[in-house]
Amino acid sequence: MKKIVTAVFSTLLMGLGLITTSSTTINATVATNNSTSKMNFKQIKKGDYTSLLGKWKQVAGMHNDYRKGITWYKLDPKHPIFKLKITKHQIKEFSGDGRTKFETFHGKYITVKSASGKGYESAKLKWSKNNHFFGASEDVGAINYTITFYPKNVPIYDDKYHRKQPKEIDNKKDRIELWCSNMGSVQIFQRN
């Protein structure tokens, strides 16, 4: 069953440089959860990440290279730059060596290290859904963070940056995209 929804998700589009106004409306067709994946969006929104449990691996990433703009970077498959750890109630992103924690999604909130480097800051997430993604976004201080869930067989959002995706991104697998407005940083994780 499909239905038409209107989703407002301008923060992500602004961060990627696709729009310059404070909001935009996207008309999209949405498939029900049962027809596309085992990701349970209702549970995820409530902070129950059981449907996401498993091994996730970073397969791609992009950042703002000030000489070239936002570009995909090459990954060494044996030494990922970022790692994702998912438990029933938390999604955590770490550095590849596992020593530095970046952001934690838990329930309706995101927690990140404060800009001063001392302590942590949290903010309540705002959720959006359309045929390209189900995700949440929020500003913590001056930086915007977004987590986007792409079930298997749903292509990653089609914009000028995602059109030339690395071949390692497999639309036949579940994917999670983490985005941070600081340097336009994007990491794509895939469930093995």
User: What level of helicity do the residues show?
Assistant: under 10%
Order of helices and strands: EHEHHEEEEEEEEEEEE
What shape does the CA trace take?
globular
Helix/sheet category: mainly beta
Instruction: Tell me, rounded to a whole number, the average pLDDT.
Output: 77
Low-confidence stretches: 1-37
Number of helices: 3
Note down, in words, how this protein is organized:
Keywords: Signal. Residues 1-28 form the signal peptide. This protein is mainly β and 192 residues long. The chain has a single domain (41-191), classed as Lipocalin, CATH 2.40.128. It has 3 helices and 14 strands. The strands form 3 sheets. A 7-stranded antiparallel β-sheet has the order 4-3-14-13-12-11-10. A 5-stranded antiparallel β-sheet has the order 5-6-7-8-9, with no helix packed on it. Strands 1-2 form a two-stranded antiparallel ribbon. It is globular and about 35 Å long. Residues 1-37 have low confidence and may be disordered.
Question: Which terms summarize this structure?
Answer:
mainly beta; Lipocalin; seven-stranded antiparallel β-sheet; 8% helix; globular; disordered N terminus; signal
Structural topology:
Blueprint: E1 2-7, H1 10-15, E2 26-31, H2 33-36, H3 41-46, E3 56-65, E4 69-73, E5 82-86, E6 91-95, E7 101-106, E8 109-113, E9 120-124, E10 126-129, E11 134-140, E12 143-150, E13 175-180, E14 185-191
Antiparallel strand pairs: 1-2, 3-4, 3-14, 5-6, 6-7, 7-8, 8-9, 10-11, 11-12, 12-13, 13-14
